[in-house]
Amino acid sequence: MKIRTKSLYKSFIINNKKINIINNLNFQAEDGITIILGKSGCGKTTLLRILSGLEVADSGDVIIENNNKVSIVFQEARLMPWLNVFQNIHFGHKNIDNEKIQNLIEITSLKGFEKAYPNQLSIGMMQRVAIARALYNNGDIILMDEPFASLDYFNREILQRETINIYLKNKKSIIFVTHSIDEALLLGNKIIILEKGEIKKEYLIEKDIENRDILTEYFIELKKDILKQIKN
Fold this sequence. Notes:
Blueprint: E1 3-14, E2 17-25, E3 28-29, E4 32-37, H1 44-52, E5 59-64, E6 70-73, H2 85-89, H3 98-107, H4 123-136, E7 141-145, H5 153-170, E8 173-178, H6 181-187, E9 190-195, E10 198-204, H7 217-231
Helix pairs in contact: 3-4, 4-5
C-alpha cells in the first residue's frame, strides 16, 4: 500500500446548501496505475486534491506509507511562460541535477526542445513537460487529474504510451483520474468506479500493462460490465 484514506468525508456549501462530495471513502492505491473512473461530479478531482494536500477533508485521514512524496499533474500543464523546458522541469528547486533532467527529457521524448518556451510547444508537449516536472519532484506517488482530456486523439494516444513507459521505467505509483473507459482499460492495473463520493466497484486487471490490446474478449467483457456499473 502506498497511500490510503480512512473514513474520508468532504462537502461544499453551494447556494447555501451543503453538498456531500466524498462520503466515508476508504480508498487505497498500491504500486502500479490505479484508475479512478466515474461521471462528472462524482468526486474524482476532489479526492485527488485531498490526496495532494491542496484540499482539506472535513473528516477522516489520508495515510501515506513511509512518508512517500506526492506529486500532481493537472488537466492543464501550468508551465511558467518565461521559463524554457529545462527550467520548467526544475522550477522550485534550488539544487539542479542536470543529469536527471536530461534523463527525464529523454523519457518524455522532449530531446531537442530543452531551450524551447511553452508558447513554442504543442499542448501535448507541454503536458510532457508537466509530467517530467512531477517526476523531477521525486514523487513516489504521482496524481494525474485527467491530464490528456484537452488533447486530440493522436496526442492523447502518444501520452498514454508515455505514461505506460514512465511507469515501467520508474515503477512509480500513479493515481490517474479519467472519464474515459477505454483509457482506464489501457492504463489501469486497478480500476475504481466512484459514484457520489463512494467506491461503487473495484476491478483488478489480470492482463499485463505492456502491449495491452483492449479489443480482446477479456477487455470487451470488462468494458460492458464497467458501462453497466456507471449507468446503473
